[in-house]
Amino acid sequence: MEAVMLDVTVEVHVPRKPEEVFEFVAERFFDNHHRWDPAVSMVKDSPGPVALGTRGRETRRFLGRQVAKVQVTKLDRPGRFALRNLDGPFELDRGYSFEPAPGGTLIRFRFRMRPRPLPLRLLFPLLSPAIARQVRANIGRFPSLLGAEPKPAPE
Q1: How far does CA 76 lie from the centroid of its chain?
Q2: Superfamily of domain 6-145
Q3: Any idea where the domains of the chain sit in the sequence?
Q4: Per-residue pLDDT tens for 56-114?
Q5: Does the global pTM surpass 0.90?
C-alpha cells in the first residue's frame, strides 16, 4: 500500500535582511524552533554550530509524544536550509529558502510528510488537512517573530 504524502509550501515576507532571517531560522534552529512551532521541542546532539550534517532530536506532541532523530541536509548561507527526520513515525523533510524581497526577505518553506506505520497511513488522509493548517499557522508566525525593531518609547 502506497503511503499518502502531505506536501505543503508556505511563503511569508519578513522585514529583515536574508542574513538576519537565516541566522534566526537556520543557525539558531534548535534554540528557536519552538517559537514558531510550540508543539515541537528540539535538542541539538552534534557539537559546535549548526552545519551540514548536524544532528538533533525533535519531540513532537501529535497523537501522543513522538521522538525522532533529525539531520541538517542543506545549509547554504544565507539562501537555503533543510533537514530530514532519520527515524520516527513520519518521513519528514523540511526546507527553507530565504530570498531578498522589497523591504526584507521572502521565506519559502516546504514541508513533506509521509507516515511510516500502517495505522498512521490509514489515518493520514483524515489528519492531513489539520497538519497542513498547523504548518501554515507555524510559518505564519515568522513575520511577528522577525518583525521590525521595536521603536523606543516616547519620552
Answers
A1: 16
A2: START domain (3.30.530.20)
A3: 6-145
A4: 999 988 767 889 999 999 999 999 999 999 998 889 999 999 999 999 999 999 999 99
A5: no
